[in-house]
Amino acid sequence: MSLQATTSQTVGPYLHLGLSWLNTDEIAPPGMAGRRVRISGRIIDGEGALVPDAMLEIWQADHRGRFAHPEDARAGEVEPGFRGFGRVPTDAEGAFRFQTIKPGRVPGPGGGWQAPHLLVSIFARGLLKHLVSRLYFPDEPDNASDPILALVDPERRDTLIARAAGDELLEWDIVLQGPRETVFFEF
Amino acid sequence: MPELAGYRRPFWGTQPEYLHSTYVSTRIRSPSRPLVLIPQTLSELTGPVFGQDGIGRNDDDLTRQHDGAPLGERMIVHGRVLDENARPVARTLVELWQANAAGRYHHQRDQHDAPLDPNFSGCGRMLTDEAGRYRFVTVKPGAYPWRNHHNAWRPAHLHFSLFGPAFMTRLVTQMYFPGDPLLPYDPIFNCTADEKARNRLISQFDWEVTMPEHALGYRFDIVLHGRNATPMES
Ligand SMILES: [Fe+3]
């Protein structure tokens, strides 16, 4: 028997009503191993306006690149207490911020490796399906050989790489539409 | 690491495009460049796993979250969460939010001139059981106006959010009611090209789940992306 996946619909303007119970700005609780980073940014629409009614979901591996999920053969070795999921709203100024640890390298297709990255989903009114992007880390030598970045037009790759903005602080804006549009993925 | 079976890509026309210009906010929020197609890696084939933590006793009964009973037509909404191979998705998180019976959300941004109900918050959550079943008790939400176009009203709907087993299976959708006269006028309901896919968002009245003297039953099954039979090429 074969079914078709249910049609996606927008979260609408009142998403926080049902979803904010899982909000957290600490993806990796204090004390988790790995280099701590604070990440902040804004979501910007096609007219340059900030998007105050959006939500991000983040998914990442631990500091050694292991996912807290049974599909990862090394899931049993994930640091205890590490889940790697976060849900973060944008505020009235369209800004978001969260803290986490930089994940390790993650297995890639064909036995290779992916550079450290976070998966980021964007939900908002006006998005009939959520958008999916990735955040990569600046000054990361593995970016040069990352198999996913390699699929992105070189001129647009920098939209996926956060900017260092001070001590352990990274900035990463998400532009939904326009000349500086962030790269979004499908699978 | 062994190669992992990937998830199926959406069937033609069964998912909306980002730009659906009759839904006005998509015009400035939809990407203008084509999405970049990438292989499904371990990052996408894993995803958050949730347990009972944070889920309260009355989180599946929206009529019992306050001292009094909410106003409106009491209803039971239930169904199964399946994958595209018709296998149940067990122990997955289902989140629900909705307007009250008068069509007003318990949300500070909702300024619709309809009464708030002090006995109704309009949100719920639960995990599916081993057979992928979920069940909420709530009240039927009212239609509400929005400013998308002249005289725009959203048909009555429930918002659902599901995770499934992987990042790839994340789904947010809306459930509608059979016979709603507003459906043909709603650009959100009509955003999907395939008519059958669209109509699967309409729940079915379920007489067998309807409880005498108590609540009407509606059934809404939800299908998440399923895996291909064979491992992906890499
Ligand atoms: Fe709504």
Automatic annotation (TrEMBL), chain A:
<keyword id="KW-0560">Oxidoreductase</keyword>
<dbReference type="GO" id="GO:0018578">
    <property type="term" value="F:protocatechuate 3,4-dioxygenase activity"/>
</dbReference>
<dbReference type="GO" id="GO:0008199">
    <property type="term" value="F:ferric iron binding"/>
</dbReference>
<feature type="domain" description="Intradiol ring-cleavage dioxygenases">
    <location>
        <begin position="39"/>
        <end position="67"/>
    </location>
</feature>
<dbReference type="InterPro" id="IPR050770">
    <property type="entry name" value="Intradiol_RC_Dioxygenase"/>
</dbReference>
<dbReference type="InterPro" id="IPR015889">
    <property type="entry name" value="Intradiol_dOase_core"/>
</dbReference>
<protein>
    <submittedName>
        <fullName>Protocatechuate 3,4-dioxygenase subunit alpha</fullName>
    </submittedName>
</protein>
<keyword id="KW-0223">Dioxygenase</keyword>
<dbReference type="InterPro" id="IPR000627">
    <property type="entry name" value="Intradiol_dOase_C"/>
</dbReference>
<dbReference type="Pfam" id="PF00775">
    <property type="entry name" value="Dioxygenase_C"/>
</dbReference>
<comment type="similarity">
    <text>Belongs to the intradiol ring-cleavage dioxygenase family.</text>
</comment>
<dbReference type="InterPro" id="IPR012786">
    <property type="entry name" value="Protocat_dOase_a"/>
</dbReference>
TrEMBL record, chain B:
<dbReference type="InterPro" id="IPR000627">
    <property type="entry name" value="Intradiol_dOase_C"/>
</dbReference>
<dbReference type="InterPro" id="IPR012785">
    <property type="entry name" value="Protocat_dOase_b"/>
</dbReference>
<dbReference type="GO" id="GO:0019619">
    <property type="term" value="P:3,4-dihydroxybenzoate catabolic process"/>
</dbReference>
<comment type="similarity">
    <text>Belongs to the intradiol ring-cleavage dioxygenase family.</text>
</comment>
<dbReference type="InterPro" id="IPR015889">
    <property type="entry name" value="Intradiol_dOase_core"/>
</dbReference>
<feature type="domain" description="Intradiol ring-cleavage dioxygenases">
    <location>
        <begin position="46"/>
        <end position="226"/>
    </location>
</feature>
<dbReference type="GO" id="GO:0018578">
    <property type="term" value="F:protocatechuate 3,4-dioxygenase activity"/>
</dbReference>
<dbReference type="Pfam" id="PF00775">
    <property type="entry name" value="Dioxygenase_C"/>
</dbReference>
<keyword id="KW-0560">Oxidoreductase</keyword>
<protein>
    <submittedName>
        <fullName>Protocatechuate 3,4-dioxygenase subunit beta</fullName>
    </submittedName>
</protein>
<dbReference type="Pfam" id="PF12391">
    <property type="entry name" value="PCDO_beta_N"/>
</dbReference>
<feature type="domain" description="Protocatechuate 3,4-dioxygenase beta subunit N-terminal">
    <location>
        <begin position="7"/>
        <end position="41"/>
    </location>
</feature>
<keyword id="KW-0223">Dioxygenase</keyword>
<dbReference type="InterPro" id="IPR050770">
    <property type="entry name" value="Intradiol_RC_Dioxygenase"/>
</dbReference>
<dbReference type="InterPro" id="IPR024756">
    <property type="entry name" value="PCDO_beta_N"/>
</dbReference>
<dbReference type="GO" id="GO:0008199">
    <property type="term" value="F:ferric iron binding"/>
</dbReference>
